[in-house]
Amino acid sequence: MSDLILPKAIKSLLDTHSDPNSVFAPLLPVLGEVLQCDRCFIYLRNPQTKLGKIVHWWRRNQQIAEITDTDWRLEPESLPTEDPLFAAALRTDPSVYVEDVETASPEVINKEFEHQNFGHRALIHAHLCQDGQLWGILKPEIFGQKRT
User: Fold this and answer.
1) What are phi and psi of 91, to 5 degrees?
2) Does the structure show a pLDDT above 60 at 68?
3) Fewest beta carbons less than 10 Å away: which of 34, 39, 94, 129?
C-alpha cells in the first residue's frame, strides 16, 4: 500500500496537534483552501444514540450561509429515506462526490432536500466510518456552480 501524500499545510497541522478540537478547528480553513470549496463542515454522530451535530465548520466568506445546527440532536427516523446521501453513509458505502446537484441521479441525491437544507451545487459527502458504523460526515461544498 502506498503512502498517502498530504498537502504540506494539512500534514503540518496533523503533525502538530493530536486533540481533535485542536486539529479540526484549524484544519477546515486549510482544507477549504486546498479543495477550493466555499464551505466545509464536520457532522459528528454517535451511532448508538443517533445523536449528532455539526462540530466544526468554515466558510469562505460572509455571503455563504452559516451553519447553525451545532447542538446535539436526535436524527429524524425519516432521514435515511429523505436523504440518499445519508442512507449511503449509514451503510458505510464509499464517499460520494456530486459534481452537480441539479443533474445528479435521484438515487444519489434528493435535490429538493439538498436545496432546503444546504443550498450547495456541488459537494463531497465523505463518510467517516469505523468498524462498520458511521461516526461522522466531512462535507466540502461549492455554491452557485457545478464542479467537475
Assistant:
1) -80, -5
2) yes
3) 94
Mean pLDDT of the chain: 91
Q: C-alpha grid cell for residue 103? A: 443533474
The answer to whether residues 73 and 53 touch, using CB atoms and an 8 Å cutoff, is: yes
Q: At 114, give phi and psi (nearest 5°).
A: -65, -45
Nearest-angstrom CA–CA distance, 140 and 42? 9
- How much is the pLDDT for 1? 36
Sheet holding 73-74, edge to edge: 73-74, 51-59, 39-46, 133-142, 122-130, 96-98
Q: Beta-strand (E) ranges in the chain?
A: 39-46, 51-59, 73-74, 96-98, 122-130, 133-142
- Per-residue pLDDT tens digits for 96-134: 999 999 999 999 999 999 999 999 999 999 999 999 999
Residue 8 has pLDDT above 90, yes or no: no
The burial of 59, by beta-carbon neighbours within 10 Å (0-12 exposed, 13-18 middle, 19 or more buried), is given as buried
Q: Would you state the cell numbers that stand for residue 3, as one nine-digit string?
A: 503512502
